[in-house]
């Protein structure tokens, strides 16, 4: 089905709405110049205008698409028909001015400039051409940014390698009319329910910050059930402001820390990933006092991250939720989750998409060179028998057929990190760093999911302990889920019984997403603010914190 057919019902409904959306008595009939003169001006102005509106580095603007569209229509204007300005350009301006509700910056879409042209009483052919091209640039740029994201993720964070652009927005410029184009814009936003809930909360925070001051809880001793006083009233009012307490007409003692206030505070603590003890200590008060505007920005960063994902996700997928330290299996219409251990802050697990194609039972661990240099070598220098104790083999190099060496005859203290060229392999056994399983989705980062002997780490709330790979709490359950009902299930069980090192191709290849969100809706539709363990929000702030330049500061 073409985009135009998909949009037809929505376009028809939107036309009815837009027909009664203006009470203006202005006349939109143009006095000369003629349409042919405007077309000639567009042909002369389009390249010049496109160059003038080239964006700052790192921001995407599909200039060539606009040029191609005008060429395909022989430079006929988009927004002028039968000597009238199409009313939809006013609706476009409204949409662009509301782009902040998606966490985008309206200044990127030139609505003020378009309004200046619309205010001209006797525009020339050149001015009409400029208006037409600028409005088309704004339309196209907004459609692109809404569907693909405004920013190039790897220019913000090289560790962020998940970017799934689509080209559906290009079809927008080939719809039948400017009205159809404008009415189609809402369809380009991600369709994920999580995106839609985040966007509603963004609007809530933006509007609340605009009309109310932050209600702050004064510093002091921790507050708990039974306490009274003005700080308790501040706590209650702040929880009302943030939505953790629903407004009620029931009379309460505002300064009394009662059981309902404690329950509300526990809900707040749970959705901010802090100890949910129902007492307002220093950490809780710090979280409570984060300004509404700061939270709105954080939501905006995460909306942009959703726009970097595919517009539609596969029904069967593995979802490695890094900030939640979990692995979610969406398989055969069911969702099961387990705890995970992810990379340390100095060895971040990257964000990317892979395709899981096979798994290995009783794997040998070939130690990555970086881990050998930074972790293994210091242990060898402290204890020359470390390799023997932990069942490692050492080889002369990484080449095929490299000679196995006697580790006790190597003077490890004389070897520096930059000179370490040996290959280390840990044999399969219960102490092997990979445990009984590794699950492979080949990628340039050499990241995979695997078992671990360090089961105690799953008892920790914050689980960033690995060297980059993802450790699974229940690898056996994971292996069963991806093989059950197929011959590979029996093959896996036989390999485990015999202790053999076996490669097992999966019956169905499964997409794997490693994702990073610092704000997500919880099961109750409230926002969950997570610890930014890799400080990625700071990078988003640097990239997205654009504001207009004061003319006095310009060159």
UniProtKB/TrEMBL annotation:
Keywords: Cell shape, Cell wall biogenesis/degradation, Peptidoglycan synthesis, Signal, Transferase. The active site is at residues 450, 469. Pathway: Cell wall biogenesis; peptidoglycan biosynthesis. Coiled coil: none annotated. The keyword Protein transport does not apply. The keyword Disulfide bond does not apply. This is L,D-transpeptidase family protein.
